[in-house]
Amino acid sequence: MVGLLAASGLIPVGVLSATRALVDGLVHGLGSGSLSPALLAPLAGLALLFALDFLLVPWVTYLQGVVNERLTARVHLLLMEKAAGLPDLTPFEDAGFYDELQVLRDQAPYQPLNLLVFFGNAFRGGIAVAGVLLLLLTLAPIFPLLLLLATLPQALLTFRLQKGVWEAVLFSAPEARRMRYYAEVLLNPEAAKEVRLFGLLPFFRGRYLEAFGRLHQELRRARGRQALGASGLVFVSALATAAALYLGLRQALLGSGGLGNLVLLLQSVGSLQQNLYGLVQDGGMLYESLLYFERLEGFLARPSAFAPSSAGRSAQRFEEIRFENVGFSYPDGRRALEGISIKLRRGERLALVGENGAGKTTLVKLLLRFYDPSEGRILVDGVDLRELDLEAWRRLVAAVFQDFGRYALTLRENIALADLERQSDPGRLEDAARAGGASELLRRLGPEALLSKAFGGTDLSLGEWQRIALSRAFFRQAEVLVLDEPTASLDPKEEAHLYQRFAELAQGKTVLLITHRLASVQMADRILVLREGRLVEEGSHQALLHRNGLYAELWRLQAEGYRAN
Ligand SMILES: Nc1ncnc2c1ncn2[C@@H]1O[C@H](COP(=O)(O)OP(=O)(O)OP(=O)(O)O)[C@@H](O)[C@H]1O
């Protein structure tokens, strides 16, 4: 590609010198009535050069296309590997991280192409400019100097201002992100029902326009500065061009240079201006692309807050997990847990109960080491979780999260994601589906049913998706089973079924069950009651009822609802 670009950069120089030879030959043979060989050679040369120009363009485009596709895929892969490869969730708490990721992701489809196209153009333009200047040097050194004066300051200024526009784009990243979000609310199916019911189109449209107004103003200012600055230099440019043309004309009139030289000079002014200006434009865009790749590099080099995990001890099984005076604040300062000390023995079934925002999910997030505690420590058989091999530790755990994933994959894949090494084990798939209450679904749709409307498959109800999520957790035969509101979307029959099967399903596993349905916690060996991040009660169902505290109050409230009639 570089070779082809260099060749095409030399074409304008070839055209200029062939034109000069043509004009000189013409002057020489004027009146002879025949085509002399001195005319034929430049003529053929010109024809060849034009043809070559045509020939090179599609090949350069072809190569740029091929390299672009690969480069774009590579950039996306690097972003995916970085974002999903970070072991913790802390980066997602940081608006700067989001911004950075969004800018990098939004521009990933075109910055690689920009890099290639603008590098190509700038490279070709650079060669053309250098060639034309060298050619002018054969007339007299003053000519390239004057023409440079006519064009270079303008070019440099434009380049400097282009940087301003790019910085404005970066600066306005949060606005651009908001615009994108408002548009997505209206364009994506998730909010389609509420958008229609509540008539939200004008609201989100208005929000979009507000964000657009701010972004647009910023960009317009930067662009205005660019245009204004460039017009300021127009006099310098005109004077230098006039001087060069005057000198050339005088030389021609004095007979010290042929007519060919004058034509060369006239054409060079146009060619230089065009090429140099193009060079600046392309150089500016190239600079922008390079800034993108610089940011990408910075993002990829972003260190993780976590120490490398694979260096740690690899837990295969455990006897006891202990929270020692654990406290945790989210990176935005929100206090979520305070002074938690609990012990969880192998095979024990623990229920976590408490009002919304009490810290139940946060506790699980710490157990899975999505975050590290702000105070205290979590010990697995006496070893700090931070010193364990993180991957090995997580392999011991299966979980159904409140916001479980719904993947646009087949039913089988949706379940087998929890243990991809066993994904082609049909017996295991059936067992997991049975455990999670998805047997009937599996039978009705078949394992290869695609669960996505967007890709031409089918969709499920929320409760059916929850059964899939449960089956996924059971597919991974883990030591620890975390269930965060696992029955929130299940019908009463399936919920009852699940808890009837619970003893069998949880056999040999250590279970952490978070639920607001207190009827289901009775099967736990022990119940922990959290309130505002603190552990306020602990014991069996009976013991807690007896105690007549928060648990008993919540229990009575729920029981009354059922007893009312
Ligand atoms: N990413 C976050 N950043 C800041 N604060 C958060 C974040 N996630 C949760 N919180 C806050 O931490 C506290 C505990 O939240 P958590 O999700 O653990 O509650 P929970 O007991 O699971 O509640 P629920 O019953 O509603 O699921 C809440 O006050 C919540 O607002």
UniProtKB/TrEMBL annotation:
One of its GO terms (cellular component) is plasma membrane. InterPro entries: AAA+_ATPase, ABC1_TM_dom, ABC1_TM_sf, ABC_transporter-like_ATP-bd, ABC_transporter-like_CS, P-loop_NTPase, Type_1_exporter. It is found in: Cell membrane. It is a multi-pass membrane protein. GO terms for molecular function: ABC-type transporter activity; ATP binding; ATP hydrolysis activity; ATPase-coupled lipid transmembrane transporter activity. SUPFAM superfamilies: ABC transporter transmembrane region, P-loop containing nucleoside triphosphate hydrolases. Residues 321-557 form the ABC transporter domain. The chain crosses the membrane at residues 37-60, 227-249. SMART domains: AAA. Residues 1-288 form the ABC transmembrane type-1 domain. Coiled coil: none annotated. It comes from the Bacteria. Keywords: ATP-binding, Membrane, Nucleotide-binding, Transmembrane, Transmembrane helix. PANTHER family: ATP-BINDING CASSETTE SUB-FAMILY B, ATP-BINDING CASSETTE SUB-FAMILY B MEMBER 6. This is Putative ABC transporter ATP-binding protein.
